[in-house]
Amino acid sequence: MGKQNKVKTAISPTRAEDYPEWYQQVVKASDLAEKSPVRGCMVIKPWGYSLWENIMHELDTLFKATGVKNAYFPLFIPLSFLEKEAEHVEGFAKECAVVTHHRLEKGSEGGLVPAGPLAEPLIVRPTSETIIGDSFSKWVNSYRDLPVLINQWANVVRWEMRTRVFLRTSEFLWQEGHTVHANREEALDRTRLMLDVYAELAEKYLAMPVLKGRKTAAERFPGAVDTMCIEAMMQDRRALQAGTSHFLGQNFARASDIRFQDQNEKEQYAWTTSWGASTRLIGGLIMNHGDDDGIILPPKIAPAHVVLMPIVRKSADRAPVMDYVENLAKTLRKKSYHHRRIEVEIDARDIGGARGWDWIKKGIPLRVEIGPRDMAAGAVFFGRRDKDHKDRESMDKDRFVEEVGGILDDIQINLYERALTFREKNTTVINDAGIFNKYFTPANKDKPEIHGGFALAHWCGSDRCESKIKDELGATIRCIPFEGEIENASDKGRCISCNKSSDTRVVFAKAY
To answer: Which residue in 349, 434, 446, 473 has the fewest CB atoms around it within 10 Å?
Structure first.
């Protein structure tokens, strides 16, 4: 056989060749972030942080529409606070960064050494239930004080041994919501409401289809009575937990002494919730929409919508072309797109074809080239990031300005439908244990290829069966789906592990 021509791509290796390394190279090529001198931490660069700012803005707007208000709580948590809830401290103990001293002094050999031991060690927050609970115990005295609906935008530290930029880092950015309620039903309603908010962000803004459900007891947030989640499928067919909402019952209210007098003047422990999403959403965006040329950003959260690239080959053409480009940018910026103005970049760098490839790798939705011919014709020449980089078209400039919002909407819809089609194609109902085992077993264990997906299989509810599948196949129960999330979820069947009777299907997958 003759040599096959390899298609030119901006990213090497490709997804098919080495998916984990592809991911790392996309983060680098798109200029989103880089590793920091501190092991396991990251530097989020301007393009990446603008993306996070847009996610924050949309999520913050959705939160506030439900009555939530923002506040801020300390970075440091006294060790005794964390110890108040036994299951909570056990769940986070191995991930905690601990501060034991409050200053540095010169040592006997001239170097700096810790000095001034603290009377009580401080934990750098891995999550804030306990210290926020302390404040809630002071704020809540009567049923008239309820509900309390609080969110904070913050950083947290969870000391990870194996890290990957955005997906799992020792320090990351997130929001954590915390609420207090007078009764169980109201707290449960809030838990589900906030999960629905995360699903709305994921699907309407990130163009990322998700399944909603609850976690098993083994996967539940430490100290929670119930954990609800949204799960998305990445292009390597692994699952990504994209947001969680926790019903905490009265566990943390008892630990933090959050009590109130009800309408009958009887003292009651409150009911609380917590919920969070983080910068791992950016990792999810990369793996949900990226291709072998870089990231593809949904227009609703992209840092910029359009890049204008003047094409100037003669010095005499520079001034008129730049005037044309600047006027077009001003006109576009006067238009709005989903309560944001159209954000426009102008890139006049003289670096040839590398300029276009830079913006392809960064995932900007629309790339527009403008040269003397376009100017003479009153036109623009543009490419969409959701299409092949060679697929470009010419359009009358005024028509482009008029239709740019519709073009961006079409990209947004296309990305969602493409991701949904991929998930549906790689979601399989499995009733046979042998097929199930093969589904999650790579053909070549020394060089695992992309395989598997979402397996909809029966589970008897046993921790032992859940643990056995995880240990043997590396697959976990991503969620017990809510009614209507998957077809035939409530069919009677038999557990894929032990063959005992089962009332429901669950979603199995390998996950990040």
So the answer is: 446
Find the mean pLDDT for residues 175-189.
98
Q: Are 301 and 373 in contact (CB under 8 A)?
A: no
**Residues 200/210, Cβ–Cβ less than 8 Å:** no
What is the total residue count of the chain? 512
Q: Residue 415's closest CA among 321, 320, 284, 507?
A: 284
What 3-state DSSP class applies to 364?
coil
pLDDT band at 447; cut points 50, 70, 90: low
- Helix (H) and strand (E) counts in the chain: 14, 27
Please, which residues have CB within 8 angstroms of residue 109's CB and are 6 or more apart in sequence? none
Residue 161's Cβ-side half-sphere holds a number of Cα atoms within 13 Å equal to 1
Cβ–Cβ under 8 Å, residues 169 and 283: no
Residue of higher predicted confidence among 5 and 271: 271
pLDDT digits (tens, 9 = 90+) for 472-509: 999 999 999 999 998 877 788 999 999 999 998 999 99
pLDDT in tens, 346-393: 999 998 889 999 999 999 999 999 999 999 999 999 999 999 999 999
Helices (H), 30-175: 46-64, 79-82, 86-92, 129-139
The C-alpha atoms of residue 176 and residue 436 are separated, in whole angstroms, by 36
pTM of the full structure = 0.95
Using CA atoms, how far apart are residues 10 and 389, in angstroms rounded to an integer?
A: 10
CA–chain centroid gap for 366, Å, is 23
Cα–Cα separations (whole angstroms), residue 143 to 68, 247, 331: 18, 19, 54
Comparing 1 with 497, the larger pLDDT belongs to 497
Task: Write out the two tokens for 124.
Answer: 């750098």
> d(Cα 426, Cα 33) in Å, to the nearest integer?
30
Q: Nearest 5°: phi and psi at 427?
A: -115, 125
